[in-house]
Design goal:
Blueprint: H1 2-5, E1 10-12, H2 13-19, H3 26-35, H4 48-56, H5 59-82, E2 90-92, E3 109-112, H6 115-126, H7 130-139, H8 143-149, E4 152-155, H9 160-178
Parallel strand pairs: 1-2, 3-4
Helix pairs in contact: 3-5, 6-7
Length: about 190
């Protein structure tokens, strides 16, 4: 992440989500109790693809999985925030608005790209089918609602140089906000 390259601590909910379901973790045991051993890989780890298929086909199952995972992810994030010694940090939370976790942040930054581009990037990153990625996108807040909720927006639909410049500008702004150097009207 470009903010990390500038020294900004980034706490990523997706990384934490993988950690809280490692073998031996209570969340994994609860997921197995809720969804059965078929959500496990041969070595005992979580088969994320199989779980994803189960929960995106069934909204009630998705809510049960979220009830198991979200409180644990939030607790880890809060602990990591408390340990930081930096003027600000970034929380990367894909479901920030959907999971009602805006109380964790002072500002909402949306990194925006057209839905078609989001879909193609997610397919390349995750190796999932277009249908699976679209199902995930369908449970997320729509693009206009995300943009309305944003305090700041970075457009990520062109070159990396432009993206890097936008990040550097926001970094300077966030440092100013964190250190109280910007007037309230600039916030």
């Amino acid at each position: 992440m470009l903010f990390e390259a500038l020294g900004v601590p980034v706490i990523d909910a997706d990384v934490i989500a993988r950690q809280v379901v490692e073998p031996g973790q209570p969340a994994l045991q609860e997921l197995v109790a809720c969804f059965g051993a078929e959500v496990l890989r041969e070595g005992g780890g979580l088969d994320r693809q199989r779980l994803r298929e189960r929960i995106f086909d069934d909204p009630a199952a998705r809510r049960r999985a979220e009830a198991i995972l979200h409180p644990r992810i939030r607790e880890v994030m809060e602990n990591r925030i408390a340990e930081l010694d930096y003027p600000y940090c970034m929380l990367s939370i894909p479901l920030l608005l959907e999971a009602s976790q805006t109380d964790l942040v002072d500002r909402i930054l949306v990194v925006d790209a057209p839905p078609e581009l989001q879909l193609s990037r997610a397919r390349a990153r995750d190796g999932a089918s277009a249908e699976q990625i679209q199902a995930i996108m369908d449970v997320q807040l729509d693009r206009p609602a995300r943009l309305r909720a944003a305090d700041d927006v970075i457009r990520n639909d062109s070159d990396l140089r432009g993206l890097g410049e936008a990040v550097r500008q926001l970094h300077a702004r966030y440092l100013g906000l964190a250190e109280g150097d910007l007037p309230a009207s600039d916030k």
